[in-house]
Amino acid sequence: MIKIALMGHGVVGSGVAELLEDKSRELEHKAGETLSCAKILDLRDFPDTPYADRFTKDFNEIVSDSAIQIVVEAMGGLHPAYEFVKACLEKGKSVVTSNKELVAEKGSELLRLAKEKNVNFFFEASVGGGIPIIRPMHLCLAANQIDEIYGILNGTTNFILTKMIKEQMTFQDALLLAQKLGYAEKDPSADVDGVDACRKICILASLAFGRQIYPREVYTEGISKITLEDVEYAKNAGYAIKLIGQAKRLSKDKCCVLVSPAFVPIDNQLSGIDDVFNGVLIKGDAAGEVLFYGKGAGKLPTASAVVADIVHIAKSSHTSLSLTWEDSNADSVADISTYENAFYYRLRGSISPKKAEELWGPLTFLSRKGQPADEIAFLTGCMLQARAAAIEQKLGGQTEILGKIRLLA
Ligand code: HSE
Questions:
Q1: What's the CA gap between 408 and 81, in Å, rounded?
Q2: Catalytic annotation, residues
């Protein structure tokens, strides 16, 4: 029998407890051992659950119980999750986490510690909810150098954008609906400002490029400035606006990583990924493009990924030494000013199309129903971010930038 402790009985933790209980026979068959949830750490009381007797408020009851082999961290946040996970690894317990902030900030250190202690630190649920992506990237694509990853990594923002595109709902109304349906938090900033997607692309980039990519190094832009006008221009030109996390290998030691809204061509597979679904495209040098698609959030999808990690640990008699990455050499992420792509602009003011072409070069002009006489919208050619910024400086005070969105490069 393998004894497991859960830290955190929120959305994900309660899903893990439920799956371990409800599917105990199937899981025993798959793991080759009984998986028993022995303790659950939470500051709240849950007297109505079938495992009410297993709750504790004292972390020491978990860390100092030598019979507990696997600890699931589903508390979220960096502290005290980091301290608790570190203490469990130091005591020789394997840890499974769904906490993307923890992995994005402390992944290299915790992976190194797990290796030293000959245990596992697994985090399949930290990216893409129920979509298997960490283990497929690390094991199934082992023969590949991964050169590029890009995708929709946040369900809440994808739901909001889908409502704006398909039902012409405003950003504010779509956000309220997302909150009502329980997708977005009361404070939705981590989703809406791109912070959550940033942590996830950092984890995937760290795994692909072999060194820790920290969220603070990554240019991150959210979706709160996107309007229905932008959505309409995009649609008329054959694009859908999506929040995209992207990481590209530039050389042995450099990569570019960013999170921003992007015009995605409708013939790109990501443009059809709607609602709370996530989709991630990975380009390997042997396998080519591989698309991962599924529910990126939610209680049971995320718990499914956690339980898969538990089963993997239970089945393997040794540590997964290869699931690791180095700490970063501070300048491995290239500066955003050096990134190249085309842009969509929406301007209001006295600027004429001719003047715009003098500044940006040849442009594709876009139109929409009810377009005011003093509004122009266009797509530029491919250019350095630095050049786009320099051109914007040349616009006189009579012209206002109402919208600027990258085209997926
Ligand atoms: N808030 C996240 C999302 C949950 O909407 O995708 C899963 O990380």
A1: 36
A2: 200
pLDDT in tens, 82-108: 999 999 999 999 999 999 999 999 999
How far is it, in rounded angstroms, from Cα 115 to Cα 374?
62
Q: Can you tell me the distance from the alpha carbon of 217 to that of 198, in angstroms, rounded to the nearest whole number? A: 10
- Chain-wide mean pLDDT for the chain? 95
Helix (H) or strand (E) holding 35: strand 35-41
Q: Which of 1, 67, 70 is nearest to 36 (CA)?
A: 1
**CA neighbor of 239 nearest in space, from 127, 49, 405:** 405
pTM over 0.85, yes/no: yes
Distance in Å, CA 369 to ligand 1 centroid: 34
Q: Strand 375-379 and strand 343-349: pairing?
A: antiparallel
Contacts of 60 (CB under 8 A, 6+ apart): none
Q: Is the CB of 156 under 6 A from ligand 1?
A: yes
Which pLDDT tens digit goes with each residue over 16-32?
Answer: 999 999 999 999 999 99
Ligand 1 center from residue 198 Cα (angstroms)? 11
Q: What is the pLDDT of residue 321?
A: 67
Residue type, 148: E
Q: How far apart are CA 104 and CA 360, in angstroms?
A: 37
Residue 129 near ligand 1, beta carbon < 6 Å: yes
- Whether the CB of 296 sits within 6 Å of ligand 1: yes
Q: Which atom of ligand 1 is nearest to the CA of 185?
A: 1
Answer whether 157's CB lies under 8 Å from 197's CB. Answer: yes
For 336, which DSSP code? G
First to last CA, the chain: 50
Tell me the CA–centroid distance for residue 155 and ligand 1, in Å: 5
Whether the Cβ atoms of residue 348 and residue 400 lie closer than 8 Å to each other: yes
- Give the ranges where 7-96 is alpha helix by DSSP (H): 11-22, 24-31, 60-63, 81-90
Residue 191 in contact with ligand 1 by CB distance below 6 A: yes
- CA 295 to CA 318: how far, in whole Å? 31
Sign of torsion, CA 256 259 263 264? Answer: positive
